[in-house]
Design goal:
The chain is of the alpha/beta class. It has 14 helices and 11 strands. The strands form 3 sheets. The chain has a 7-stranded mixed sheet with strand order 1-2-9-6-5-3-4, with helices on both faces. Strands 7-8 form a two-stranded antiparallel sheet. The longest helix is centred in the middle third of the chain and has 20 residues. The protein is globular. The structure holds nicotinamide-adenine-dinucleotide, ligand LNCXM5UN and zinc ion. It catalyses: 7-phospho-2-dehydro-3-deoxy-D-arabino-heptonate = 3-dehydroquinate + phosphate.
Amino acid sequence: MTDATTISVHGDASYDITVGRGILSSLGEALPPAARKVLVIHPPTLAEQAERLRTQLVGEREVLLAEIPDAEAGKRIEVAAFCWQVMGKADFTRTDAVVGFGGGAVTDLAGFVAATWLRGVEVVQVPTTVLGMVDAAVGGKTGVNTAEGKNLVGAFWAPRAVLCDLDLLDSLSRNERVAGYAEVVKAGFIWAPEILDLVEADPETAVDPHSDAFRRTIELAIDMKARVVGEDLREAGLREILNYGHTLGHAIEHAERYRWRHGAAISVGMVFAAELSRLAGRLPDAAAQRHRDILESLGLPTSYRPGAWPQLLSTMQRDKKSRGGMLRFIVLDDIAKPTVLQAPDESLLFAAYQEVAG
Ligand SMILES: NC(=O)c1ccc[n+]([C@@H]2O[C@H](COP(=O)([O-])OP(=O)(O)OC[C@H]3O[C@@H](n4cnc5c(N)ncnc54)[C@H](O)[C@@H]3O)[C@@H](O)[C@H]2O)c1
Ligand SMILES: O=C(O)C(=O)C[C@@H](O)[C@H](O)[C@H](O)COP(=O)(O)O
Ligand SMILES: [Zn+2]
């Protein structure tokens, strides 16, 4: 392991996120010492690496592999049930542990399986995508989708440790890297403007996992997430800011039947949230334009189908930030000044949508 950075989540559930190269070799030490059985949940893409992990971990413990369907197809209750069956057949006890080895879809599912098996066993998250490292594997939001929408069933269940091995990113396509990077840009808009400056200075370098700018920006994003979830694990207040761009973004993912990458949908969602902020008289014009400029410089989408509004509005009613019939949005008063906009008028929402309808 070389040049590792440790970022800690403090609070009721405290744990470390380790970022660096060659980190995977320390997975054994991150597991609970009492675990005699370990279930590694992984997507088909990582089958060979998962087999290597198994070889690395066996010895003092039995290692089971659960290959699940790729991407959002893996985030279903039937897939959780398959994992429960594997654990049941292996007499998995409360001292045993789960490893989530994959992108955000896998770490969400693995965390949910760990949260629910025997009402909770430990999980170590090993994210293998940019998005997983900066966002999904950190913070203990776990869950599955239902036919009605994104992440509608789940649990808050903090991991024991998060290992971000940057070597794993070498096999990701540029498209995947950039889609995941949308969550890094989100961190820039809601918390750490230094991220925005670094992307503006050189977008291509910022998304290159071998550059200093990439390392700096992902660590800023992880640090932001660690601070926020350390203060508010269960999303009673502050944590809602992490949902910037997600109210519309999740509705787009649902409308697209998950053929869009999460980060791409969130990119459009952030432009919408910025326009909503601007039209509500909160965000200066230049800051809203900055959203488009930065996201477009990375090749992320900033517009969506004009005719989709009625369907998107209906799906947004099921957003977890809604209270009764009242929609709530995270908006910005300025860069790095997020706040909640309660029950905006439908005409304002429609006007903001017109700005992204392309
Ligand atoms: N829990 C949270 O706080 C949180 C935060 C953000 C996003 N999410 C969730 O995360 C999911 C999106 O995560 P994602 O963008 O990582 O997508 P993903 O998990 O679907 O992975 C994207 C693709 O990359 C492949 N892949 C993974 N690692 C690879 C590697 N190292 N090399 C080559 N290919 C690899 C996967 O097989 C998949 O096809 C969404 O379901 C989203 O809702 C959760
Ligand atoms: O960690 C959080 O809190 C987030 O909102 C992070 C988001 O990037 C992430 O996509 C999350 O899964 C959204 O959660 P949801 O509660 O809106 O489903
Ligand atoms: Zn997200």
